[in-house]
Design brief:
Neutral endopeptidase, domain 2, globular, Collagenase (Catalytic Domain), alpha+beta, three-stranded mixed beta sheet, about 675 residues
């Protein structure tokens, strides 16, 4: 899975007599040959004219739109915080924001809001207390030691079950704990220093704080050693193991599971999915040897880190210094009002989303977007029918799955009810704590119930889109359905390159190396013939090998297997959008003439490339090379067009030029 303007979207497809504008010519660097470096040709001037803001580790077209959206949200929230005669929705989002902005009250309360929790941890005296505290922290939304939540049963997506998985780390990935490379060793050193400073802010002496910080690193290193890598996490079959609670207890006898499940607020259940049994087995063997002091330090740091943004400026600044300045290179935090907007959106997203839709999503927008989605679905069906490498039986199953995809556009069918969450204008810490517990309870309440496939996984103003394999749905929040992805005043070609490629990308996720393992009902089931499955893997390996050759920064290369799903979706989505454009041009009898001296096909590829213009700090690039399943923007563009003869024809590229690969890769 997986960026705001106050303008509604009046139309998705341009009428023949509509004012016609083309690509963002100001973003282009025409001195670059598009057949040598298409990304620089499309984005070179944008990159040069948009240096990274001091409060960002990454700045691109997604961030530009998210920034506009947040300004819309700020206006909505500030009005809700100040107006008289407010509705219940306005009161909750307005008071949540006002409490976040009241830094004088936050400073006055100091560490008092978190002291009872710290004292509870410090008072642990037995293994039973450790199990109880793990449950307590989970209930607070702080996933220590492992992850415990609810999710659709991968082999029966109509029901929701409990799920246990690896977790409990602070640093971005297991590699940060285990690899001897100098850059990881330096981060571990600075992490210990940061944890020690957090403990000192909480009242510990310098010596004790350093010892406790070292214990935190040691315990997390134990968890990292037991964890599987991110590529393995992408394989649903390797992360599906239904076990009874008795079997889990036998696997990890040192843990009082009955105490944990009850303490975490889970309802009664008999079986659950244990995503990584070996992880639980390894930590079950090792954790009993850990001292109580190690658990105390580990729990206390995770609590302080999770709540740092809700405490005094000293905690917030120290947390920022390591997690942003050190790990991503960002010199300064975002202005507080926008941090508070983000907190309201994350915590009360469906309330804020209702107000956002009123302000920024026109009544006819869903139907207009649905038209484009329908055109893309038609093109994907044609693409599947035309595949020479896939047999008829698998094609029929693929077409059936495509036809079963649910298209969610704009906002959810029903809004989440926050009626039992108490929001106080003068209790920022308490508001955040109550929201976190509310969200955790919602997860627990789903266990044992039918899966609600109408639920969304991101908020309405979010500039993003996502595909859910268990739901077999593609989801496009209102936040992304705006320029530069779509603009009603542009010609068809640019809109299909922008919004069309995003829609095609999400559709293709249903058929990437992960999504293809789920059927049209969202169940983990192999619906491929053996021969077609083998052919898919061969073609996917080509994509993985191509992207593994790209250097993200310095000598840090991308992990082609980690990014395989996104790269497959980029390649397939752009091809499907191109096919849909050709159909749309033919159906409308549109003129195929040039606009701004560019043919429709050239404008299409530029519309695609220009949504990925971005700048990123080296620290962020290094972190993402290890953790992010998405490639950086320049490879999302160049890595895709080199595989498309349609691009090479559009720009008259010669066979020997860099944007032409003799052995190009293609799955869809």
């Amino acid at each position: 899975m997986r960026l705001l303007s106050l303008l509604a979207i009046p139309a998705l497809l341009c009428a023949a007599d509509a004012p016609m504008t083309s690509v963002d010519k100001a973003a282009m660097n025409p001195s670059i040959d598009p057949c040598v470096d298409f990304y620089q040709y499309a984005c070179g001037n944008w990159i040069a004219r948009n240096p990274l803001p001091a409060d960002r580790s990454r700045w691109g077209r997604f961030a530009e739109l998210q920034d506009r959206n947040e300004r819309v949200l700020l206006d909505i929230i500030q009005a809700a915080a100040a107006k008289a005669g407010r509705t219940p929705v306005e009161r909750m989002i307005g008071d949540a924001f006002a409490s976040c902005m009241d830094t004088a009250a936050i400073e006055k309360r100091g560490i008092e809001p978190i002291k009872p929790e710290l004292e509870r941890i410090e008072g642990m005296a037995s293994a039973t207390d450790v199990a109880a505290e793990i449950a307590r922290l989970h209930r607070m939304g702080i996933r220590v030691v492992f992850a415990f939540d609810s999710e659709p049963d991968a082999k029966d997506s109509t029901r929701t079950i409990a799920n246990l998985a690896q977790g409990g780390l602070s640093l971005p990935d297991r590699d940060y704990y285990l690899k001897p490379d100098a850059r990881f060793a330096e981060i571990r050193k600075r992490y210990v220093q940061h944890v020690a400073r957090m403990f000192q802010l909480a009242g510990e002496s310098a010596g004790t704080a350093t010892q406790d910080a070292q214990q935190v690193l040691a315990l997390e290193t134990l968890l990292a050693t037991a964890s599987v890598d991110r590529v393995t996490l992408r394989d649903p079959a390797k992360n599906y193991h239904i076990m009874t609670k008795k079997e889990v207890a036998a696997l990890v006898p040192a843990m009082d599971w009955s105490l944990f499940f009850e303490g975490a607020g889970a309802p009664a259940f008999d079986s659950l999915n244990v995503a990584q049994p070996d992880f639980l087995k390894q930590i079950g063997d090792a954790l009993p040897t850990e001292s109580l002091d190690a658990f105390k330090a580990y729990f206390e740091y995770h609590l302080l880190h999770a709540r740092a943004a809700r405490l005094t400026g000293a905690f917030e600044n120290e947390d920022f210094d390591f997690w942003q300045r050190t790990l991503t290179g960002v010199p300064q935090p975002r202005p507080r009002q926008f941090r508070c907007v983000q907190m309201v959106d994350r915590g009360l997203g469906d309330l804020l989303g209702q107000k956002y839709v009123e302000a920024a999503f026109g009544a006819d927008a869903k139907a207009r977007i649905g038209q484009l989605v329908g055109n893309l679905e038609k093109a994907m069906g044609e693409d599947i029918h035309g595949l020479t490498w896939m047999g008829e039986d698998t094609k029929k199953a693929a077409i059936a799955k495509l036809g079963a995809i649910t298209n969610n556009v704009g906002y959810p069918k029903k809004w989440r009810d926050y009626g039992n969450v108490a929001i106080s204008r003068d209790d920022f810490y308490g508001n955040a704590a109550r929201i976190a517990e509310f969200l955790h309870r919602r997860q627990m309440d789903k266990i044992g119930k039918p899966t609600d496939k109408s639920e969304w996984g991101m908020t309405t103003p979010t500039v993003n889109a996502f595909y859910s394999p268990e739901y077999n749905s593609i989801n496009f929040p209102a936040g992304i359905l705006q320029p530069p992805f779509f603009d009603a005043q542009r010609d068809l070609a640019v809109n299909y390159g922008g919004a069309g490629s995003v829609i095609g990308h999400e559709m293709t996720h249903g058929f990437d190396d992960e999504g293809r393992k789920f059927d049209g009902d969202g169940n983990l089931r192999d619906w491929w013939t053996a021969a077609d499955g083998a052919e898919f893997e061969k073609r996917a390996a080509c994509i993985a090998g191509e992207y593994s050759g790209f250097s993200s920064v310095d000598d840090v290369k991308l992990n082609g297997r980690l990014t395989l799903g996104e790269n497959t979706a980029d390649n397939g989505g752009l091809r499907i959008a191109y096919m849909a454009l050709q159909d749309a041009l033919a159906e409308k009898g549109a003129k195929r003439g040039k606009v701004d001296k560019l043919k429709p096909e050239q404008r299409f590829f530029l519309g695609f490339a220009q949504i990925w213009c971005e700048n990123m700090r080296p620290e962020e690039l290094r972190t993402r090379a290890v953790t992010d399943p998405h490639s950086p923007g320049r490879f999302r563009v160049n890595g895709t067009v080199v595989n498309m003869p349609e691009f090479q024809k559009a720009f008259s590229c010669k066979p020997t030029q860099p944007m032409v690969h003799a052995d190009s890769c293609r799955v869809w």
